[in-house]
């Protein structure tokens, strides 16, 4: 059985941060060096396939590319209407655009009614040789300010120019929208490149996304290696095997230069992900 569903995502953020470029990269895999400010709103759509708990979905994602700047209330009102998710975009090379994410875009989208998924997108990654520090610092300041709410947000550094992380950003937020609409509280889809770990899947995915936040990039290899090195059987996970896996992972974190105190905080949280077994 194939279920058809349509959802709406708005791309928001200051002028010139790359909203239209992100949409073009995602929809048609193209990029323009020259800048044409968007007048009003562009709407495009793309069909995405997902499998959730063995059920197949075709999600038609309507992407609303909204003109930048905070002065266009009427346009924003339209964009926010019935929106299922928002991608809030900042430009890594423009600190004012990052500041307005916290000062303007997050408050305005979270204040408008309803339950929405949010993705924080820091774009133009290609222009910074090493954007990791800036990215991590910004996302962690947001998590400090917004607390648990922000734990659930997709966060990613992207380049519309090179294409890095663009498809993933859209797929990730769309998957969250889909999961929360078809199975509230049940995040059971596997992101690309991650195997289906059965009942332990949620725990592994949570670790994967936390790790991505810590490192500023996705690195499932470290999880795969730790899994292999442990005796954990993902089809039949036992508590002590899971703890062993976390210990091995902890060693990796240390050798990757993640502060001990920070790592310990996460390890503690992760150890609570698998309570039942
Ligand atoms: N190097 C680089 N340039 C980018 C990237 N994304 C966008 N640009 C450039 O930045 C400029 C602005 O991009 P747009 O996509 O038009 O920005 P926007 O947010 O849609 O702007 P408004 O419609 O005015 O709100 C253009 O010149 C793009 O070529 C990127 O990831 N890397
Ligand atoms: Mg635009």
What would you note in describing this structure?
This protein is an alpha/beta fold and 277 residues long. It has two domains: 3-181, Rossmann fold, CATH 3.40.50; 198-271. The protein has helices spanning 19-28, 73-80, 95-111, 132-146, 148-151, 166-182, 201-215, 220-229, 239-255, 260-271; strands at 2-13, 41-52, 55-66, 85-91, 117-123, 154-157. The chain has a six-stranded mixed beta sheet with strand order 2-3-1-4-5-6. Strand 4 (85-91), helix 3 (95-111) and strand 5 form a beta-alpha-beta unit. Helix 8 packs across helix 9 and helix 9 packs antiparallel against helix 10. It is globular and about 55 Å long. Residues 184-198 have low confidence and may be disordered. It binds guanosine-5'-triphosphate and magnesium ion. Residues 19-20, 38, 65 line the site of magnesium ion.
């Amino acid at each position: 059985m194939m279920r058809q569903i349509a959802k709406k995502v708005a791309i928001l953020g200051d002028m010139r941060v790359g909203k239209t470029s992100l949409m073009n990269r995602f929809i048609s895999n193209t990029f323009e060096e020259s800048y044409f400010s968007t007048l009003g709103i562009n709407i495009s759509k793309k069909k995405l396939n997902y499998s959730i708990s063995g059920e197949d979905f075709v999600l038609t994602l309507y992407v609303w590319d909204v003109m930048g700047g905070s002065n266009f209330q009427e346009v924003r009102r339209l964009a926010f209407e019935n929106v299922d998710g928002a991608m809030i975009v900042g430009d890594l090379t423009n600190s004012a655009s990052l500041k307005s994410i916290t000062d303007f875009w997050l408050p305005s989208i979270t204040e408008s009614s309803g339950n929405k998924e949010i993705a924080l997108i820091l774009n133009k990654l290609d222009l910074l040789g090493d954007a990791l520090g800036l990215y991590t610092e910004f996302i962690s300041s947001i998590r400090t300010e917004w607390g648990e709410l922000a734990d659930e947000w997709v966060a990613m550094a992207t380049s519309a120019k090179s294409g890095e992380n663009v498809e993933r950003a859209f797929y990730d937020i769309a998957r969250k929208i889909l999961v929360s609409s078809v199975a509230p509280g049940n995040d059971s889809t596997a992101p690309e490149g991650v195997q289906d770990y059965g009942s332990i899947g949620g725990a592994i995915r949570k670790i994967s996304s936390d790790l991505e936040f810590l490192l500023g990039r996705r690195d499932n290899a470290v999880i795969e290696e730790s899994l292999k090195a442990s005796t954990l059987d993902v089809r039949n996970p036992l508590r002590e095997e899971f703890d062993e896996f976390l210990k091995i992972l902890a060693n990796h974190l240390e050798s990757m230069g993640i502060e001990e105190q920070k790592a310990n905080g996460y390890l503690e949280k992760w150890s609570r992900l698998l309570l039942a077994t």
